[in-house]
Design goal:
Distance between the termini: 22 Å
Shape: globular
GO biological process, one term: tRNA queuosine(34) biosynthetic process
Number of helices: 15
Enzyme class: transferase
CATH class of the largest domain: Alpha Beta
Catalytic activity: 7-aminomethyl-7-carbaguanine + guanosine(34) in tRNA = 7-aminomethyl-7-carbaguanosine(34) in tRNA + guanine
Strand order of the largest sheet: 5-15-14-13-12-11-7-6
Structural class: alpha/beta
CATH superfamily of the largest domain: Queuine tRNA-ribosyltransferase-like
Largest sheet: 8 strands, parallel
CATH topology of the largest domain: TIM Barrel
Number of domains: 2
Subunit structure: Homodimer. Within each dimer, one monomer is responsible for RNA recognition and catalysis, while the other monomer binds to the replacement base PreQ1.
Radius of gyration: 21 Å
Number of strands: 17
CATH architecture of the largest domain: Alpha-Beta Barrel
Helix content: 25-40%
Protein name: Queuine tRNA-ribosyltransferase
Length: about 400
Amino acid sequence: MSRNFEYAAAMFSFKILKKSKRSRARLGVIHTPHGDIETPAFVPVATRATIRTLDTSEVEDVGAQVLICNTFHLHVAPGEKLIKKAGGLHKYMRWNKPLMTDSGGFQVFSLGFGTDHGVGKMLRSEQDKKILEGSQPRSLTITAHGVRFRSPIDGKELFLGPKESIKVQEALGADIIFAFDECPSPLSSAEYMRRSIDTTHRWAAECLDAKKNHKQALYGIVQGGGSMEMRIESAQIIGAMNFDGFGFGGEFGYDKQSMKKVIGAVSDNLPENKPRHILGIGHPEDFSIIVAAGGDTFDCIAPTHYARRGTVFTSRGPSTSLRTSRLQINDRRFLKDINKPLDPSCTCDVCKTYSRSYICSLMRAHELTGMKLTTFHNLHYFNTLATQVRKQIKNGEL
């Protein structure tokens, strides 16, 4: 792999500032047309160009450096043509920091095998490994050129392939975009997985050919599921292509140790001077695992998804610790905590202003303000945790 610690292309660059001697972790900075991203970085998910319950100024206040929006959902509604007419995603959502858009490939999986099998990014148990599927998912049709499916809004038949995905993402105008890939089920047979990664590699080349906007960075996606052999092969093939960075897609095994091994093996087989993004993984307990294995950025719906359901992430031990606890703040026992913040170690405006009792009462009454406050806190906590990870690398502790 390349030993050059800096990569630059047009208006995008990545520079490694420090490499850990204890792990694959590295401290770096990604430069984009809309500002810099200090890495490692957590990337909040703004599916439909918004963080639910927060406005963009509040998303800035929680310390977010970059957001990732969902190409599939924005294509379905309101449509990339309208967003382009409005000046692109940055102007449309009033966000003047870096943006990513995924390719829509994960939605192929979600509408297909995800619907058929009810599975996600991680296998739930050893028993899941015994369920194999060699045929196509029933909910859509995968062809050599892309995917035909029905709109979840009106049932209209739609088609999305590598050329279409790049065209949509260029119209949206994010700083970092991703190649269109097929994201197969964790329960797919080895035969299906082989066909799937071959398709992903072919589509990756088509995405590079289709890309016209030189202001955007294009990341290629490594697939292969939990198979180390296929992951390494995919990393070597995608890594040899002229991408600006790389995304790690699909599932990562059925436990944290498997995830660490997969990310580490893929990292070792990619050019060292280009950034790596882990798609859809990023609970607090994953941060140090992902970063130590070589990840630079990672996105996850956990802080916002859990917040709206009453789960609050808090520190356990010193504020500099990466250890995390969870509070189910809508539990009535927190009503008595009239003078206690969600997290005594947290410096966010929510913890400096409101009590557990107040937030508990709002959540139990299903008030939107309660969801807003828990979302704000969780995102602040995740971004603070990412800051601590960067400090640990700088201090030689990770």
